[in-house]
Amino acid sequence: MKTTIRVICTLCMLVLCVSLSAQEKKVPAEMLGKWKYTVENPQSGESMNGTCVVATGEEATKATFDMGYGPAETTAFRPGENGKCTAELPLQDFSMALTFSMKESKLVCDIDINGNLFSIEMTKE
Question: CA distances (Å), 55 to each of 24, 34, 50, 74, 118, in order?
Answer without folding.
Answer: 19, 8, 16, 11, 23
